[in-house]
Amino acid sequence: MKPIRWLAIPVICAALLAGCETMPVSPTGLPPVSTDTAERAERDGEYLLAAREYTRLAETAEAPQKQDYELRAVAALLKAGQLYEARTRVEMINVLPLDASFLARKRILQARILIIEGAHERAIRQLNEAGAIRNLSPALLSEISQVRAQAELALDNPVGAVRNLIAREQYIVGKEAVAENQQQLWKILVALPRARLATAFNMARDGVLSGWIELALIAVENAGQPLRMNAAVEQWRKANPAHPAGETILGALISQAPMIGRVDRIALLLPLSSGYAVAAQAVRDGFLAMDAANTDPDKPKISVYDTGPDPAMAPGFYEQAVNDGAQFVVGPLGREAAEAVMRQASIRAPTLMLNYTDEEPGSTSKYLFQFGLSPEQEARQAAERAWLDGHRQAAVLYPKTSWGERMVAAWSSHWQRLGGVVVANQSYNDADVDFSEPIKSLLNITQSEARKDEIEKTVGQKLRFETRARQDIDFIFLAADAKHGRLIKPQLNFYHAARVPVYSTSHIFTGAGDAMRDIDLDGIQFGDMPWMLVGDGKIQELRQTLQRDWPHVHTDLDRLYALGVDSYAILPHLGRIGMESGARFGGVTSGLSVDQHGRLQRQLLWARFTRGVPRLVDTFLKHRDQFKIENDAESPDPSQPRT
Q1: Is the peptide bond before 64 cis (omega within 30 degrees of 0)?
Q2: Comparing C-alpha atoms, which of 573, 490, 492, 477 is closest to residue 525?
Q3: Are 268 and 293 in contact, with CB atoms under 8 Å apart?
Q4: Contact 305/267 with Cβ under 8 angstroms?
Q5: N or C: which end of the chain has fewer CB within 10 A?
Q6: Cα separation, 354 vs 357, whole angstroms
Q7: How far is CA 7 from CA 12, 20, 57, in A?
Q8: HSE on the CB side for 455, CA within 13 Å?
Q9: What pLDDT score was predicted for residue 358?
């Protein structure tokens, strides 16, 4: 008997087979649209959620409220580090028929984008255009001064930045806002070498500016000498009775409270004689290579402490480093060691821990920062990228390991928080080489085949049957390393999911640039650091300068080396970016910002494998010469001392 063709099967059988697919699901769980929801998300640092809510509000609003929400959405996207999306959207906002203040707001946002892109002179021109508009509110004039200060600082004109922050004070209302503005300009000044401060003091003609610079000289020259500091501050008070410097600054000087400014001694705490020695050495090599490339004769002295194999010993090494005179501590490396320091040590100096902890920073938060290469952070960024690309319904494929479960938990919770739906998730055994069964289960092919067998038994005939992947998913989030990804992606293609977008994290790329093997990863989109993805411009120059003889170039250890590079380069900028909401440092690991808990957040580049080679996805980044580390003027350039 001939096999029965599919079209000959009764409609009821077709319905049975169709049951293997889930009907498209609409995103659920989004709160009712309201300004309060958007503003609350922004206050809580959930900037992408805020952008989503402002966008929803704009969809139903009339002008000028519509443009107000659109501009607020772009501002939130910038704070979230979503530069490409912000740049695209701001150009589409039509403000010409509206009050001129809307044009000023648009110009300010465009200037912020240009600063991140490295086009600082163009940013200042945009700000000048905005500032020329008449009858602007004090809030807008204040913002123009603040953004111009950022541009001047990026152009290595710190005194110009301070001038703008001094001018900004006339537009600020409230003691707390004034104190915060003064702390911003103070952190710029005390990070400067004494010789540069002295030159600026001799050239200053404005009394307020010269008073600030003189106070910074007092801080630098009398650090660690409380009696001399107190006397010098009192003498300065008498000479400058009308100066606006507040008690927040003067009190900190007198009390010798820890400040993130000029640093002369840095302690680096790493487990160099532990099971993580290779990783620790890579971080150390990157850190010390940056120090070696720093030509500033007054650069800080580095002391390296081996914290050993027992994380419980880390607090003792931390206390020893501070007692030895360290003004900034970098480390320890590792979650357990970092948590031990937070629980047991007294955080008496500004500290950059090389991992993220679950411990609350408490009263030490203004001096304590955390920085690492968190897989969970990358998973959350993959969710954000997929959301911004317009996807809403996801399938997840992950290894049945503790790492895989951490990844899928971080990704899923963030994806659902954004309003996305997880249609299906499936684990796989990372010891296998054949992943057909978990892939078939994920794509509903296993269920489809089972139903086909059931119908064949019912009708007593063989069916001519062709499997088809489920149609109710927009994309797949794949948690995998390169080894497993090279096996999984071809099997996804085989089971009719070749056109389903696949998102992953940096773990999918070894960094070796092996196109022959990585061609099996074609189509996968992933986030990674500029150090791994950008092969020309400043990145190439920096690699050639720092890694001439380093034996682990283009391996997974490269990322840890880059962590060491950025851990050194960001130190003098931590105070500034910690004070300014949405401020970003362009590093080799990513664009770095500081959240309200002192945790550094990385904003990765996105690439897609094409013919085995990762190629940047955002086309305007591919050809922009400044974006070789995110922000050319703030990049750790060895020819320009950063500390």
Answers
A1: yes
A2: 477
A3: no
A4: yes
A5: N
A6: 10
A7: 12, 18, 48
A8: 27
A9: 83
Query: Percent of the chain, pLDDT > 90?
Result: 69
Closest to 149 measured CA to CA, from 188, 118, 106, 92: 188
Q: Report which of 557, 623, 629 is spatially closest to residue 592, judged by C-alpha positions.
A: 629
Yes or no: say if 439 and 492 are a contact pair by the CB < 8 Å rule. yes
Residue 38, both tokens = 């958007």
CA 575 to chain centre: 17
Instruction: Report the 10 Å Cβ neighbour count for 434.
Output: 11
Using the CB atoms, write b or e for 354-393: b if 16+ within 10 Å.
bbbbebebeebebbbbbbbbbbbbbbbbbbbbbbbeebbb
Angle between helices 375-388 and 402-418 (to 10 degrees): 40
Amino acid at 156: D
Q: Give the whole-angstrom CA distance, residue 99 versus residue 107.
A: 14
DSSP letter, residue 630: S
pLDDT confidence band for 625 (50 / 70 / 90) = very low
Residue pLDDT, tens place only, 363-421: 556 789 999 999 999 999 999 999 999 999 999 999 999 999 999 999 999 999 999 99
The DSSP call for residue 494 is: I
Model confidence over 285-330: pLDDT tens digits?
999 999 999 998 889 999 999 999 999 999 999 999 999 999 999 9
For 419: left if phi > 0, alpha if psi spans -120 to 50, otherwise beta; the answer is left
Q: 538: burial class by Cβ within 10 Å (0-12, 13-18, 19+)?
A: buried
The H or E element that residue 449 is part of is helix 445-459
CB count in 10 Å sphere of residue 615: 12
User: Could you identify the residue written with the tokens 């200060």?
Assistant: 149
How far apart CA 568 and CA 589 sit, in angstroms, is 12
Tokens found for residue 451: 């139903």
- Can you give the length of the chain in residues? 643
Encoded tokens for 433: 């080489």
Q: What are phi and psi of 466, to 5 degrees?
A: -125, 125
DSSP 8-class letter at 452:
H
Neighbours of 498 (CB within 10 A): 14
One-letter amino acid identity for 141? L
* Gap between the Cα atoms of 200 and 12, Å rounded: 86
HSE-up of residue 631 (Cα within 13 Å, Cβ side): 29
**Cα(600)–Cα(567) distance, integer angstroms:** 11
Pick the closest to residue 371 from 287, 302, 258, 306 (CA basis). 287
CA distance 630 to 634: 8
